[in-house]
C-alpha cells in the first residue's frame, strides 16, 4: 500500500470535517493529513487497507456511490464500509 502523508486532498477533507487528522483512500493510495505523524500507525494502515480491498471489489465509482449512500442513510460511523474497516483493524 502506498501512503501519502499530509496530502492536500486529505487536508481539505480534514478542514471540511474540522479535524486535525483525516485519511482518504483511493484504489492505489492512502492519503493522510495529520498534525502529528505519530498517529500514522499499523492500526491506521490496516483500516485503510480494508478500504483499498473494498475499492478493488466494487470498483471506484460503485464504491463511492455506495459509500456516500451508506453515510447518508446510516451516518459516517455506522456505514458498512467504516464498520468493516474498523473490524479489519481490530477495533471492537
General form: globular
Q: What is the string of SSEs from the N terminus onward?
A: EHEEHHH
In whole angstroms, the N-to-C terminal distance is: 24 Å
Structural class assignment: alpha+beta
pLDDT averaged residue by residue: 75
Strand order of the largest sheet: 1-3-2
What is the percentage of strand-forming residues?
15-25%
Helix content: 40-55%
Question: What is the total domain count?
Answer: 1
Cα-atom radius of gyration = 13 Å
- Number of strand elements: 3
Low-confidence stretches: none
Oligomer: single chain
- Give the count of helical stretches: 4
The biggest sheet amounts to: 3 strands, mixed
In words, what does this structure look like?
The structure is a single chain. With 92 residues, the protein is of the alpha+beta class. The protein has one domain. Helix content is 54%, strand content 16%. The protein has helices at 8-16, 42-58, 60-74, 80-88, and strands at 2-5, 21-25, 29-34. Strands 1-3-2 form a three-stranded mixed sheet. The longest helix is centred in the middle third of the chain and has 17 residues, at 42-58. It is globular and about 30 Å long. It starts with a strand and ends with a helix.
